[in-house]
């Protein structure tokens, strides 16, 4: 099982995996994405931890620092359930971090997000299968926990949620807002999984909120 000191090897695996799907990213981008998987702000922060190595205060599994979850207010009830569902999907797999792929899987059952995806002729079950396959095949060896710590969202996950609150302006933030702002993470596997189904950021930006 890998820990955060194997980050460079993980970055190479990520880059190769994305390349096999036709999405080319630079070495630097793969390193930044790997840092996000560990919930750290950037590669420099993770590199410093790697250089430092384990200290007396480190746990036996040498896990990186963690942040507590504090979602913004003003979400629809459905989005609250969706975010919790994403964390549950990660926790059920003993993943320490919930990624955008866990979030995408949860959005498939969000009424606001799924309605727009269906209107865009997305095959939800096909997308569910490919997303689950990616999570189970590519993430299981990266971020498995070794104790009973709670699962936390990655920096990219949090960033998407924050952008969704900005997009929603004065109305409640919904799953549609989260789905739309997910496209800002252009190097994320979640985005190319959506793109494979013909989803575009332009189409989502034009989509109105679901009628209550």
Automatic annotation (TrEMBL):
InterPro entries: Clp_N_dom_sf, Clp_R_N, Glyoxalase_8
Domain Clp R: 72-212
Keyword Protein biosynthesis attributed: no
Highest taxon above the source species: Bacteria
Organism: Bradyrhizobium barranii subsp. barranii
PROSITE patterns attached to this UniProt entry: CLP_R (PS51903)
SUPFAM superfamilies per the UniProt record, alphabetical: Double Clp-N motif
Keyword Repeat appears in the UniProt entry: yes
Homology family: Belongs to the ClpA/ClpB family.
Entry protein name: Clp R domain-containing protein
Entry keywords, A to Z: Repeat
Pfam families: Clp_N, Glyoxalase_8
């Amino acid at each position: 099982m890998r820990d955060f000191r194997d980050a460079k090897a993980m970055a190479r695996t990520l880059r190769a995996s994305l390349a096999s799907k036709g999405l080319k990213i630079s070495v630097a981008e793969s390193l930044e994405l790997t840092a996000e998987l560990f919930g750290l702000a950037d590669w420099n922060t993770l590199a410093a931890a790697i250089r430092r190595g384990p200290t007396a205060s480190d746990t036996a599994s040498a896990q990186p620092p963690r942040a507590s979850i504090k979602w913004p207010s003003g979400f629809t009830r459905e989005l609250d359930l969706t975010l919790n569902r994403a964390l549950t999907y990660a926790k059920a797999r003993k993943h320490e971090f919930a990624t955008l792929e866990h979030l995408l899987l949860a959005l498939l059952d969000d009424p606001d997000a799924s309605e727009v995806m269906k209107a865009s002729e997305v095959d939800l079950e096909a997308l569910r299968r490919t997303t689950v396959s990616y999570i189970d095949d590519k993430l299981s060896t990266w971020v498995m926990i070794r104790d009973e710590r709670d699962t936390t969202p990655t920096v990219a996950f949090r960033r998407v949620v924050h952008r969704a609150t900005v997009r929603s302006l004065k109305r409640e933030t919904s799953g549609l807002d989260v789905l739309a702002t997910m496209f800002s993470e252009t190097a994320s596997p979640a985005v190319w999984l959506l793109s494979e189904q013909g989803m575009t950021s332009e189409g989502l930006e034009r989509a109105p909120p679901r009628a209550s």
